[in-house]
Design goal:
- It contains ten helices and 14 strands.
- It has about 375 residues and is an alpha/beta fold.
- The chain folds into two domains: about 80 residues, GMP Synthetase, Chain A, domain 3 (2-Layer Sandwich), CATH 3.30.300.130; about 260 residues, 3-Layer(aba) Sandwich (Rossmann fold), CATH 3.40.50.
- Strands 4, 5, 8, 9, 10, 11, 12, 13 and 14 form a nine-stranded mixed β-sheet that branches.
- The longest helix is centred in the first third of the chain and has 19 residues.
- The radius of gyration is 23 Å and the shape is globular.
- Bound molecules: adenosine-5'-triphosphate and magnesium ion.
- The site of adenosine-5'-triphosphate has 20 residues, from helix 3, strand 12, strand 14 and helix 9.
Length: about 375
């Protein structure tokens, strides 16, 4: 309105106002996150661009409104004089931090959990298989070096073929099961030998698994992360920063205790600027096969509330199911089973949501 004059308004003032606007998904303000570009002040208003790293489309609207509110309230510029544009960071191979993306691999998705035993590997295995059933080319990397479970859950044993590549580095062929390319430390070491991996060895091994395995061509590489938020998980999260990790999924059970660890696990990815694709709630409830009665064994709503609070989607709720457990033990993922207590449709819909969220991230 009439309050607007070029003399009053400076880029610094605009930036100060925008410092009050939080990035809804990742936290921190837009200016500190270096997301505000090209502030231009003209007689007819102020314009600037917001460089998005991760947000899904719905967040754009939220960010725009928050920016307009801040400038209107703090600097007295009415919103019709504010022009907010959006740009996205340049990315290839699906990764924002594309310094060393894996050639021929479009999307890398980490499946993590704050706690052990919540069903991380079950989700990773079924997500991979469900994506493959959708027609995608999928790889599954077992980064849980202390407790590799992919060989058992995918029903595969054996040693990967290795040869020396043109660059003089060893190259490994992934094993295959159910149409999915697989790599696990379980294929390389004897089960009966205790494995003691220290931090640097862990990153070294992960690098080999990422770069010295013939993954390409893949649409999705799913990584089953080690449980927890300790040294090993953190080291891996940091190493993955350079892979152009598309995003992370966190698995939790409805217990509040697990939820606290979930926040830590998500913080870990947030610290290394990896977008959170969402939360999967596992063992969410139990339906008695004989009566059809539903039991909310651990209570309800905790994961939904957490997702809400963190501003990330709840990608799905998987009930407890005998066939899910059996599928894991038999090396045939539940998503391939026809049994109703395998909840194949639930896993399939989680995979569809993940794929949708990934493509939204890519096409901002
Ligand atoms: N929804 C479910 N219904 C029934 N059993 C399940 C379900 N999810 C997981 N399980 C079973 O619970 C056990 C632990 O699951 P899983 O190995 O996937 O967890 P994890 O988080 O990967 O554990 P770890 O921390 O040891 O890696 C397995 O026996 C698995 O088959
Ligand atoms: Mg596991």
């Amino acid at each position: 309105m009439g309050l607007f004059s070029r003399n009053q308004l400076t880029e610094a003032k605009v930036l100060d106002a925008l410092r009050t606007v939080q990035e809804p998904e990742l936290g921190g303000d837009l200016v500190s996150r270096k997301m505000i570009k090209n502030v231009v002040i003209k007689d007819d208003g102020v314009s600037f661009a917001v460089e998005l790293t991760t947000p899904a489309c719905p967040l754009k609207h939220e960010i725009r409104t928050a920016c307009e509110d801040a400038i209107e309230q703090i600097l007295g510029v009415s919103r019709e004089h504010i022009n907010v544009e959006f740009t996205a960071q340049v990315r290839t191979h699906g990764g924002i931090l594309d310094k060393a993306a894996i050639p021929g691999v479009s999307h890398v998705i980490a499946v993590s959990a704050g706690k052990g035993g919540v069903g991380k590997s079950t989700v990773a295995v079924n997500l991979a298989t469900a994506l493959a059933r959708e027609g995608a080319r999928v790889g599954l990397l077992d980064a849980d070096i202390y407790g590799p479970s992919i060989p058992l859950m995918m029903g595969t044993t054996g040693q990967p073929d290795a040869e020396t590549g043109p660059d003089g580095q060893p190259r490994m062929q992934p094993l295959q099961a159910h149409g999915i390319k697989l790599m696990s430390v379980g294929f390389l070491v004897d089960d009966s030998q205790p494995v003691i991996w220290r931090g640097p060895m862990v990153s070294q091994l992960l690098r080999q698994f990422l770069y010295q395995v013939d993954w390409a061509p893949l649409d999705y590489l799913i990584i089953d992360m080690p449980p927890g938020t300790g040294d090993v998980a953190l080291t891996l999260a940091q190493s993955l920063q350079n892979v152009g990790l598309t995003g992370a999924i966190t698995v939790t059970t409805p217990q509040q205790v697990a939820a606290i660890d979930v926040i830590k696990s998500m913080e870990m990815f947030r610290k290394v600027n990896v977008p959170l694709l969402g939360i999967v709630e596992n063992m969410a409830y139990f339906v008695a096969p004989d009566t059809g009665a539903r039991y909310d064994i651990f209570g309800t709503g905790a994961a939904a509330r957490l997702a809400d609070r963190l501003g990330v989607p709840l990608l799905g709720q998987i009930p407890l199911g005998m066939s899910i457990r059996a599928g894991g033990d038999d090396g045939r993922p539940a998503v391939l089973s026809e049994n109703s207590d395998a909840y194949a449709d639930v896993f399939q819909s989680i995979a569809q949501r993940v794929a949708a969220r990934v493509s939204v991230l890519e096409h901002i």
